[in-house]
Amino acid sequence: MFFRQSIKGCFFAILTAFFCLQGRTEVISFSPLETGFFLSSEPINTLYWRGQNSKALLLFIPGGNGTIGLKPETTDKPYSFYQTLKSLTNPQLTSGRFDVVLLDSPSQLIPVTLRGSKDHMVRIESAIRHYSNLTHLPVWIMGHSNGGISISEFIKYLQSKNEMNLISGVIASGIRNESFFNPPIAIPMLFLHHQNDGCKSTRPNDSFEKYKQVKSFTSSQVEYVQISSGEAENRDPCNSGYHMYFNAGVEVSKAIDEFTSPFLSTPR
């Protein structure tokens, strides 16, 4: 009897450890692929939310000044926008088909022209290659607001290197008016924008024009989804409310799920 109980106890311990591993959150730091006179040697800090049955990894490049303030002891980011992304790892809240990574910047990416700097491009590429090797999952990139410039510049960076196969898809969320995409693009792209976004730098009509531009030359699926739920906040409209999908997280995660589902066919 004791032997059976011991085996049973070990089994549940292993099972518990397995599920803890699958749902773990951790800060992972690593070195950039390149360093030099104009390239920072500061480590790349990321927050990794691991899903349970992921079929792809979503690398998120934040807007604002690009900094998240990750520390080795960081275990979560309670801000509602980040929690919306985290829900993509949880099959009880969404399809749960993603691992999600938040990319931190060691310095402020202000002015926004720094979003196109070689240092920023190398950091994004380093994160993609690191997690591709770590998880063996296809990598999608997502940029929000100022992060829209990051993803449009990064696509040009990959095009110049003939390495567009490094990424499997793109989510352009609430992107800045200056964001611009060049052909060729042969990977799926989802444009997300709140219909009531009141930030003058991220006008819904401008993002729709970017969508039409890409649709005119892409050879892959591209969609534009307007978010309609959520609430305004009594703060800067470029940092809150509709622009940040406040209380619209369920609609946002559903839009990402529905668009990406046909492309996520390879199990972990």
Would you mind describing this structure in some detail?
This protein is α/β, with parallel strands linked by helices and 268 residues long. It has a single domain, classed as Rossmann fold (3-Layer(aba) Sandwich). The protein has six helices and eight strands, in the order αβββαβαβαββαβα. An eight-stranded mixed sheet has the order 1-2-4-3-5-6-7-8, sandwiched between helices. β5, α4 (147-161) and β6 (169-173) form a beta-alpha-beta unit. α2 runs parallel beside α6 (249-260) and α3 crosses α4. The longest helix has 21 residues, at 2-22. The chain is globular and about 45 Å long. It starts with a helix and ends in an 8-residue tail after the last helix.
What attributes characterize this protein structure?
6 helices, alpha/beta, 268 residues, 32% helix, Rossmann fold, globular
Strand neighbour order, sheet with most strands? 1-2-4-3-5-6-7-8
Which structural class should the secondary elements be placed in?
A: alpha/beta
Using the coordinates shown, work out and report the CATH topology.
Answer: Rossmann fold
| Count of alpha/pi helices | 6
Question: How many domains, as an integer?
Answer: 1
**In one word, what is the shape?**
globular
- Output the CATH class name: Alpha Beta
- Our estimate of the beta-strand percent is 15-25%
- The run of helices and strands is HEEEHEHEHEEHEH
Query: What is the straight-line distance between the termini?
Result: 38 Å
Helix content, binned percent:
25-40%
CATH homologous superfamily - what is it? Alpha/Beta hydrolase fold, catalytic domain
